[in-house]
Amino acid sequence: MTEVVPTSGTVHWVGAGLSTGSGLAALCDTAARVRLWHRTEERAGQALAALGLTGRAEPRAYTLPALTAELEPGDVVVSMLPAPEHAPLLGACVGARAHFACSSYVSDAVLELVPAAEAAGVTVLTEAGLDPGIDHLFAHSLIARASAAIGPETAASYTLTSYCGGVPAVPNDFTYRFSWAPAGVLNALRSPARYIEDGTETTADRPWTATRPHVLDGETFEVYPNRDSVPFVTQYGLPAAWKPRTFVRGTLRLDGWLTAWAPVFAEIEGDDDRRIAALARELAARYPTTETDRDRVVLAVSLDVHSGSGERWSGRYLLDAVGTREESAMARLVSRPLALGVGHILDGSLPAGLSRAAETGERSEAWLAELAEDGVEFTLRID
What we know:
Elements: E1 10-14, H1 22-30, E2 33-38, H2 41-50, E3 58-61, H3 64-70, E4 76-79, H4 86-96, E5 99-102, H5 108-119, E6 123-126, H6 134-150, E7 156-168, H7 182-188, E8 193-197, E9 200-204, E10 212-216, E11 219-225, H8 231-235, E12 242-254, H9 257-260, H10 262-269, H11 273-286, E13 295-307, E14 312-322, H12 329-346, E15 353-356, H13 361-373, E16 379-382
Parallel strand pairs: 1-2, 1-4, 2-3, 4-5, 5-6, 6-15, 7-12
Antiparallel strand pairs: 7-13, 8-9, 10-11, 11-12, 13-14, 14-16
């Protein structure tokens, strides 16, 4: 195994968008030096002032060459940029022997660079935000607990569902307010969703057609599958003796979403890129998240296991958070687990090569305990 490059203590946080929150402040407490890279130095300074971090981090104007010129071996680069920009950043990190972290899913372009990163002693931390991130922690914890109770060699079937959504804390007639790129919200609905239902792999060409009610503590939501859930059966390390009845990772919305968004779905069905781009702008103008609005984040991960002999184990994690005047719930819940992961790069506890927020039940329990100490509230119920 390649020896990890010792960390220098310097963290470069790249981007100050809607998901940059108190996690950056936490790193200002733990890292020797923090630099915030934004579009201009002035805007970086304004972002630091808004977060109450003036003087605690150094503002910088971001370009990839400018960042590359300041990278030293053992630095940590935290990318809050769009996913297509991660690979070029990681390439710069590999060249400088600096570590890399982001909250996004692993892209093929990033995966291609992982062998070179590992050979250089560079840690590549991904999927370390909310979803993906905390959802992985919840799932690994539940699977480890169920395995201890049922036994990983015991023939069993299981249902695992993982739903996450950012919604308005005060519902409106549209059941939604845009807090991130509206085009991204609509285009996500254009992508097919693959999942397991009734023991069979299923694909919904239009994800909303698979919407169903989902009740959490007496409140009804609407949920639908997104992306490709099937690879996570392997990523989560579910016992081979257990067979999935249902396995789905998806999005959560307020009750009434399917009806309220019917005109949007009709536009998406038309597959007119120009019209959908225009619609995204119209909806963002009509239903923005303003400074007076508070967002709400709900993440629910459940696992139900039935053995062939009739034994049953059921557990559920629920996170339900509302934003404050100082910080949105989304910014808090993306940036804090990411900062926790960066802290573990700084302390040298993550290996060279690719890591995700959670890859074992043991690490999940440890990170969840640390998040709880940091004020991230969630509940665990085992039946």
